[in-house]
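Record format v2
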Amino acid sequence: MTALLRTDAVSKSFGGVQALDGATIEVEEGSIAGLIGPNGSGKTTLFNVITGYETVDGGDVYLGDQRITNAAPDKVFSAGIGRTFQLTRVFSRLTVMENMIVAAQHAERGQGRLRNPLARAGGPATRRRATELLEFTGIVGHAGALAETLSYGQRKLLELSYVLMAEPAIVLLDEPAGGVNLTLISTIADRIRELNQRGTTFLIVEHNMDFVMGLCDQVTVLDYGTAVVSGPPDVIRTDPRVLDAYLGTAEDDDDIAVG
Amino acid sequence: MGRQLSEAIVDGILGGSVYALMAVGLTLIFGVLDIINIAQGILVVLGGYLSYVLSVHLHLDLFVGLLVTVPAMFIVGVAIQWAFIRPLRGRERTSMSLLATYAVAIIIEGILYIIFGSNYVNLSASYTTTGPKIFGFYLNYIYIYGFLMALVLVVGIYYTLYRTQFGRTIRATMQDHTAARIVGINVNRVQALTFGIGVAVTAAGGMVFGATGGGFNPNTGYDLISRLLAIVILGGLGSIAGAMVAAIFMITLEGVVTVLWSPSWSVVVFYGALVVVLAFRPQGLLGRKAARAQ
Amino acid sequence: MSQGTVNAGPAQAGGTVQAPAGRDRRATAIRLGLLGVLLFIAVIFPLVITNALYTQFAVDTMIYVGAVAAWNLFSGYTGYIALGHAVFFGTGAYTVGLLTKQWKLPGGDIFALLPLGGLVAALVAVPLGLIALRVRRHTFVVITIAFFFIFQLMAFNLSFTGGNQGLSSPFFLWSASDYNNPFYYVGLIIAVGTITLSWLIRNSRFGLQLLAIRDDEDRAQGLGVRTMKVKLIAYAISGGISGMIGGLWWFFIGQALPETAFNPLFDLTVALMAFLGGFGTLAGPVLGALILEPLQQWIGITFTNGYVSDIVLGVLFLAVILFLPRGIVPTGAEFVTKWRVAQARRREPGPGGSAPPAPPGSPAASRTSTPAAGTPSTGTPSTGGVR
């Protein structure tokens, strides 16, 4: 097994607050990796620097052998990293199908469609794929509806669907189970497993421990911007450093999550 | 040349302080309401006309007149906010507020034209034409008085913001409307009062402007608002210190270019400076970088 | 506002957009027919109404229809409110003016210069866009205003622009009775062309990218959209068309002065037209121009005191913003949708057969399943086309 995604001693500070302090993590190809840690430990910031939404102060990010440190978000996405956001971000005044087509840039670029920039958006192949993905996530019935009419859970599913449009090698999910009901949580977990079986690698930030422990092969614990321990769920569950990380923050619970 | 240059610099700093005062009002309004008050320019002119009426018809001293015009402009500001800003909601609120305040500006401009005509008006008093000789040129007292008044008012605004309970509610509202509501701040009231304060300072600014410059007519509002916009953006939107620094920098720069090059190019340099700064520092001199992620 | 409250259940959301195919076709036919009638009226207008005052209004209106469509192509689609398009309008006017003078072109030939004026304006838009499009919202608005002042002052100060004397256009030798017509038809061609282009863009990949930027620019970039490039292209296209229209305006008015070619009211009028009709929609801004420009002209001749007409205009501005904030077209569309839903409810009083959530089918099954089954609306965005 090789590391598909690797951060090497990544640091990032916001006005004196050290959000990431030499964070080194590795995600193996074909795995479902979890990233946990107390509030403000730098999980979302790590996602942001990996996907180009923030620049690093030091350290490097690699996708396979390719160095993608500080690449712009569109470049990171084209390289094969998709992500979702903690608070869903969909294009609210576009329809669900149009949302899917926006994310299909990468897939369509290879098809010679660039020749005519005014051609109707989304060729048959794109639409077929979008429909399949929406069926897969169970929101195909809303394909023609404006994204702003979706419920919160449906938006999460849409976000997952459109990220998949570009067939990313790895998908970063920021709290996929946050704020959604139990039925949907298990649906989401099922979908992640299925996609993983098809070859998609995942890195998941999540506070719901049952979700993480049940789904992930490998869990990394982040504390004060540093990866303190990494291992299979069973090992993590019993590691004293994990307890330290969570309990140690009880006194100084400063939330520095900038994202 | 040396004398002209030092005159330009002194004028720039003293005159710039008056722009700073008007710009602080504008940036304060932006910070709390997240809108740009396009009417700020014409409101300065309105403030100037109020002073003019009081001094010509009631023979009130210009500075004494401020005791009337500042509260009057405060009320005007609160009324504008209540009637035209408060009702704006939804996604295009930013653009709508630009158009709404612009419409207010057009209406006020039209009314001023009908009442006062297009002749330029100057505010005059004994201290607008006399003064001490420094660095080889005569500096009228009004520049010094105006500078001191701007200083007092800006310090007063600073003190209010950072040392009083009301200031804390304003700053809390600037940071986060929702959070401010949660901790029990009446955001609507804070917004109305802030708009009032932001407009009230134009009365003082307008008086000094009318007494120092080459006079004003209703059309002067455009010139003023475009300068003020450039200043607040250069300083960094919402930054009070930035607005003050930028005002003095820009007005001095303009004066210096007038001396060294030509008056007709000084305004080009004025806006050019803004473009150049923003090309390298999109958030302005003292503005904070907007977070890109959530 | 809580996002959850606007959630429509699966059945509702699916149902409202899935109008029967027959009605869809009929609606399209009605729309096309309506467009045809409008176009016909536009084409014959100066032949039927020959009063020079009215045809002059008509030329002005066409100029604004084109200008607002061009403005909307950038600002409406991306959400970046540009208040400096007068830069491009004026650049086009001055370019065409200077070339006419230089080459001493006669008569109607000089209409051929318009694309050149547009090209120069588009070229000017590129460096300006590279600076301005790095900032957003208020800062973007103000930096476009700053560009505007720089260009106006340059027109005053530079020697080749004729300073405050401006540039006069040659007088055309065609007959006085239908003097306005050539301008009108050229204006109509530009306007129709711009609207068609807007429509094509709205349904294209490029257009979707622009609309995605309007909704969440950073997210769009995170999904692979090259946001800067896309915004810049739209800005340049929009600026280029504004430049062509500026050139036309110069021929028509006969003189470009720094304060009229680079007119601060130009952008505000255009923005107001767009908001009146419906910001970001296709038909809205055009409708706004068709209503507002003649109205403005009418106010201008009714209230002979210019200041009074300004005040009336300001009051009108405020009335639109306060009472019709979303514009005529979106408000109207919402009304129609509500009415249709009410109609549909009346026809089918049942619970509306909620579709069961798609079963978690195996990956293989979901890959091979036919997409069309049971979801006829999937491929047709309900907001596409003319709205």
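Residues 90 and 288 of chain B are 25 Å apart (CA to CA).
The first helix of chain B runs from residue 2 to 33.
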